[in-house]
Design a protein that fits this description.
- The chain is α/β, with parallel strands linked by helices and 373 residues long.
- It has two domains: 6-28 and 98-144 and 220-367, 3-Layer(aba) Sandwich (Rossmann fold); 30-91 and 153-207, Orthogonal Bundle (AF1437-like domain fold).
- It has 19 helices and seven strands.
- Strands 3-2-1-4-5-6-7 form a seven-stranded mixed beta sheet, sandwiched between helices.
- The longest helix is centred in the N-terminal third of the chain and has 19 residues, at 42-60.
- It is globular and about 65 Å long.
């Protein structure tokens, strides 16, 4: 057992803990890291596709395309540079960067509830993370794909490698907040979009590796929300007995469903969209706060947790009697000085917390992640 003293705690039944992986548990931006490792100038390559992804999803609203589908667009290129399923697994095993305390928190929630990970990440990455933290992979929802399942001739690999170099050399598309139609983009950016349209929806469609794009379904915003509903039905609990922890835009529907259903929606170092859909905005470099909130929620429910957040302090947590002494000692050890914030999101403070959390997010995960998500 990971934590001493759990044997004498009250039993926890009929509760579900669901968390995104990248952000609340790990620091990785796993797809861009994979591209950076195996594709020349791969970080730039992925940034170009990430901006193109935003144009397709938010401006063009291309039928059958959703935000985050850039994860499937990169797959033929990874294959062209010789990446295999095993190579992905091995890379991820050595690339995992945990949010401090993430492994302990995920082992702790296994002691008190039915825990699940719902992530957009490739199954290769989630499998490596589950092995690393001792979490059951069967309790995860993630993007499934197999590079080994597609044959690629040398001429096709050569064609895709040339296209990858071309894409990486493109300027980053600038999409101002006021952008409503493709005509609002700069002329050079419209040319980039037109060229990428030609590449992905014309030139590549006859390639064998295009099956990777057609058959891969990234776990995005709507899939995460559906997974939350499925998990609750599977366990046999109402949404009010579910706690969801997310951090970015593809968590918004899941956070919203849990919040509106009476459960606890937590944005952990979240971007503005995640904070907007959450009950709580947590700004912390360590996941001990997640453990504390999880225990308080599963002992009492949402209302009591929000009451704690309205008077948030270490002393208040100690007086409440809702948090195990071990967790309090661990929190004091990790934070001997200023205690991290866990703020109740309300209409009056929402804009403030959105800005604070987005800024704090960059201090934990870096400016590069802030630019991608």
């Amino acid at each position: 057992m990971e934590f001493d003293g759990l044997d004498d705690m009250m039993p926890y039944e009929g509760k579900v803990f669901i968390s995104d992986c990248e952000g609340p548990i790990t620091k990785n931006a796993s797809t861009v890291e994979l591209c950076s490792k195996f594709i020349p100038n791969g970080e730039r390559f992925f940034k170009v596709l990430s901006r193109y992804d935003s144009v397709l999803a938010e401006v063009v609203r291309k039928e059958g395309y959703k935000a985050g589908d850039s994860m499937k667009l990169v797959l033929p290129f990874l294959k062209a540079f010789g990446v295999t399923d095993m190579a992905m697994v091995e890379f991820y095993r050595h690339a995992i960067m945990m949010i401090p305390g993430g492994d302990k928190t995920m082992r702790y929630v296994q002691e008190i509830t039915s825990p699940f990970i719902v992530s957009s990440s490739y199954e290769h990455y989630i499998g490596a993370v589950c092995d690393h933290i001792g979490f059951p992979f069967e309790n995860s929802y993630c993007t499934k794909c197999s590079l080994d399942g597609v044959k690629m001739d040398d001429w096709e690999a050569h064609t895709l490698r040339d296209l990858a170099h071309e894409i990486a050399a493109m300027p980053l598309i600038d999409m101002p907040f006021s952008t409503r139609t493709i005509k609002d983009l700069r002329p050079d950016d419209r040319k980039s979009v037109q060229r990428l349209d030609q590449v992905f929806w014309n030139e590549m469609t006859d390639l064998d590796s295009y099956h990777l794009i057609m058959e891969t379904v990234p776990v995005g915003d709507s899939e995460k929300a559906a997974a939350v509903v499925e998990v609750c039905k599977k366990i046999g609990v109402a949404l009010e007995d579910c706690m969801y922890v997310g951090d970015d835009s593809n968590d918004t529907r899941a956070l919203g469903i849990v919040r509106k259903g009476g459960g606890l929606a937590v944005a952990f170092n979240g971007n503005s969209n995640a904070v907007r859909e959450s009950d709580l905005a947590v700004m912390s470099p360590h996941t001990i706060i997640t453990s504390i909130l999880a225990e308080a929620f599963y002992r009492t429910g949402k209302d009591a947790v929000l009451d704690l957040a309205d008077d948030w302090s270490f002393e208040r947590l100690k007086r409440s009697g809702l948090v195990h002494e071990y967790l309090l000692k661990e929190a004091r050890r990790v934070f001997p000085g200023q205690f991290p914030e866990a703020r109740h999101v309300t209409p009056s403070n929402m804009s403030e917390l959105m800005a604070q959390s987005a800024s704090y997010r960059k201090t934990v995960r870096g400016d590069a992640v802030g630019a991608l998500y």
